[in-house]
Design goal:
The structure holds 2 protein chains of 2 kinds.
Chain A: H1 2-6, H2 8-42, H3 58-68, H4 79-95, E1 107-108, E2 111-112, H5 122-132, H6 134-143, H7 147-170, H8 172-178, H9 183-188, E3 193-194, E4 198-199, H10 207-220, H11 232-235, H12 245-270, H13 288-307, H14 310-329, H15 333-362, H16 368-401
Antiparallel strand pairs in A: 1-2, 3-4
Chain B: E1 6-7, E2 15-16, H1 25-52, H2 83-106, H3 108-111, H4 113-136
Antiparallel strand pairs in B: 1-2
Helix pairs in contact in B: 2-4
The chains are: A mainly alpha, B mainly alpha.
Chain lengths: ~400, ~140
Amino acid sequence: MEFITQHPVLVVSLGKIAVLLFVIMTVLAYLSWFERKVIAHIQSRWGPYYVGAHGLLQPLADGIKFLFKEDLTPPVADRLVFTLAPFLALALALTAIALIPFGPPMQLLGQQVFVVSNSEIGLLFLFAITSIGVYGIVLAGWSSNSKYALLGGLRSSAQMISYEVSLTLSVVGVLLLAGTLNFNGIIAGQQGYWWHLIPRWHIFPQIIGFFCYLTAAIAETNRVPFDLPEAETELVAGFHTEYSSFKFAMFFMAEYANMITVSCLATILFFGGWLSPFPDRWTWQLFLPGAALLATGVYTAFDTVAQMRGLKRLQMTIVTLLALGIGSLCLIPVVAHVIQGPFWFSVKVFLFMFFYVWIRATLPRFRYDQLMSFGWKLLLPVSLANLVGTAAWFVWGWMRHG
Amino acid sequence: MFSEFIDRRAPGRYYISALNMDSSYLDIYAPLLLMFILAAGLAGVLVAASTLVGRHKHTREKDQPYECGITPTGDARAPFSVHFYLVALIFILFDIEAIFLYPWALVYHELKVFGFVEMMLYIMILLVGYIFLWKKGALDWS
């Protein structure tokens, strides 16, 4: 008891973690809706439509359906490992998010507001946690005792470790520029502007590193065009062929959580994290979050009146009122100041998520030999060359200025 | 706004000094442990719910491993290509290289040209191994 009163950080972080987990689970659920909707519209379909207005209650319906489906464990499977695999995948994918700072290092009563764990070696720790995540897939593939699952698990683990090398190498260039592994430090190093206009984000000096990171990150999260482990035309569903019910859903939640982590990392390392893309002197940007939400509210209001009938009209009215209410709340100067960091951070992460979905709707899948040789023969040398080039650029600077 | 976090020792570079921050290890890593416990709890609840809720009715067909409706032949725990093992070995080699690069990148602005030359030598040695692997065909997948 005394231990807890001496360390209020435990109680405070319990609250922060509860909020974070709630938000993340909601985002994971609605990411599936978002992905289906965007892909549908790219392919000239409507996507989720019937459950709730614009299919907005579809994730809820999916969740309930998953829960009440029969959970089948094959008798030939290794029971313990079979249960452990989805547990490990989801638990580790969620834990990694604790290291992400969603806003500036703002302190309230001596406690960090926007980050659960502001580790000095944040980047290293995050890579450590996410690289254990591969165990979930290997164990799932092995324990199912099914040929498809085994092949999928093997392919997936080989792919993930191949691209992990390029992933870790591609960010060393950023580390050379930032000189720290702490996320808030990396972001703080990207403050300022070139010619008072272009933000000094690492994306501009590290454009090659960024593309290496992006490719490796998509491969790490097993997404199209690198979704070989679940190439349905050859391997049915890959490592989760034998999974059903919520255990199956957990692999998807872990995949989405990993996508979020990787997008957050790209935002932090290359796109200035919670920094605004506009110069500080443009003070009107303070009211952008509120204005954006109000505009959304006005749009949904028109949509409600023009399109929706019955229960769906009620749902959209609630959405409209929420958008208008939170939007006007964000116009209060104090709230506007606090909301700036999280707003820009989520906008950037959202753009990355959209990019993920866009790629999935656009690109065909690699062949496995192409995938492996792309990772080892192109991505690895290029990210290494980028790192050497960055280091040499510094040497050139020292030679000139002494 | 962030001036208290930033220590401008090297011109034009930003350093976060570990000494200036209130870095009690408990304050930083206890929340991380807490997060893991809660995330694991959530995942555990989901696994348990998946096992408890919903009906369970075994039939002979349902209990077979899924092989597109064809009766499965033989065990799935068959030997697989040794190439996967080779990839794992190469991965360890290059991931250790990456791990050595991380601390080097952090102190690069203090080591200056010395650090650059040393690391280039190190990378060169690994590059020889990389070229050897390439020529041997260890990176080909056929």
